[in-house]
Structures are given as C-alpha cells and as structure tokens.
# Entry
Amino acid sequence: MKYKLIAVDMDGTLLKNNGEISEETLSAIQDICDRGIKFVVSSGRPVPGIRKYDFLNGIDSSAIVYNGGKIIDLKTDKVLFSQGLYPDDGRKILALGDNLGTTMCIWSDEKLYCNVLNERTEKYKRNSGLEPIQVNATDYEALISQGIAKILWYDEIDRVQQFIKIMGKESFESVSCFTSNPAYLEISNALVSKAKAMEKLGEIYGIDREEMVAVGDGENDLSMIEYAGLGVAMANASDKVKSKADYITASNEDEGVAKVLYKFFSGKEDTNENSSN
# Structure
C-alpha cells in the first residue's frame, strides 16, 4: 500500500517529554513532504498551541486541532472545517464545572479563558502559548455567543475520574468527554473526533482511508488509529491504545514517529519495532 497521508498526535507522540521535536524527526518529515505526502498534526491543542512550532509553518498541509473540532490549512490559515459546542451544552458544562470547583480552560475565538488563575492555568499556558483571560459566570453568555470550541477541566487525577462518572449521568444534546492527559478532561461536541477530521481531509485531498496512517498515544487518538488504513501506537501508549493499533512503534523519546516514516514511507526497516497482534 502506498500511503498518501499521515496524521500524528503531538504530545507524547511527535514531541519528546520536554515538549521539543528532534532533528531526526524533522528531517524525516521534510523528506516525505518533499515527496508530496501529506503530513498532518492532529492535536487537542488550539491553533496557537501548534503555531508556536516553527517547523509547521513550512508545511503545505493541514492541521487538526481541538481533537477534530477544527481543521486549518497550515499554509494559508484558512479554516477548512469547524464545529464547536452547542450553546445549551456549553452553558450546562460551565455551570457544572463551577459547581464542582474545578479549573476550567475555555477555548473561544482562538483565545484561552479560565474561571480561575492558578498553578494549573499557568502550566496549561505554557502548552497553549497564550496568556489566559480570567472570566466568571457573568461572562459565560458572551463566550457562548462567540462560540466555544472546547472546554477542558483540569484537576487531580482521581477527581477527573469522578468527573467522567458525573458527566455520564448528565443529559446533553451532543457532548463527548475523554482524557487526553490523566489530569485533563476534554469536553467537546460529540460530532467531532480526530477520525471524523481525517475523513473530512480525505474528501478535501481525494485520499481514501486505506491510504492513511495515524499515530498516537492517548485515548483521544483511538478514533483516528482505528479509522486509518494503518493505525500506529507509540510504545509509551496505554495498553488500551496499543490493543487497537495495527503496529507499535518506539516511544516518543526514541524517535517513534521517525521510525514510522522510515518504515512505511521510505521502506527502511527498524528491528527494534514490533507489529501488534
């Protein structure tokens, strides 16, 4: 199979644990781009959170952001697809988050809004690349009118697990929630996912799903790993993610993405990698 597109998660996949990308991986990406293959970053991050990586500015392809809530053309910044939370859902999630006393990171109009400013929002700021704007309940209607791409609840890991159970008992029009990090509960429209974004890109570029590769490590990557013709899990992925993958590559600390590019796009084998059962 000649693959024509590869979608790669960022945190825990493309990026090392220090948040940087290696020169080897950069070189491998440039090589496939020079040969006309579409390299797509697929992340829960917002646009500013990926734009801070200069190497993406030279790529003639697209980026999936907000876990599939938006697709942008990296070369022109044109929005190819966008779907945020429905107003009533956003209203209910914001009220519930305040009642639970959790830290909320709210993405609207490519700006980061938070209900509190604390150590968690300071850490999140470093990943997002944007200064958070503090808001309270009196500001929520303005954000809802503006449109909310996603809401992230940031808390202790055991509390996040409790939140998942609470959300499962609530009634919404169209909401999905999942952990992209054990301390993050990401909440978005159920109509969006990384898989659905890949399907949309297939329509745009005229590429079949069998001609796509997806690489990731988190549960928010599961949909695209299962959708793609070749789904790849990182060695540092959870057992659940690995069980759904067609292939397991090395970890994000050991050039896992570069090794996928070598093996499936240039034919270079790596004896340290293992295919899944």
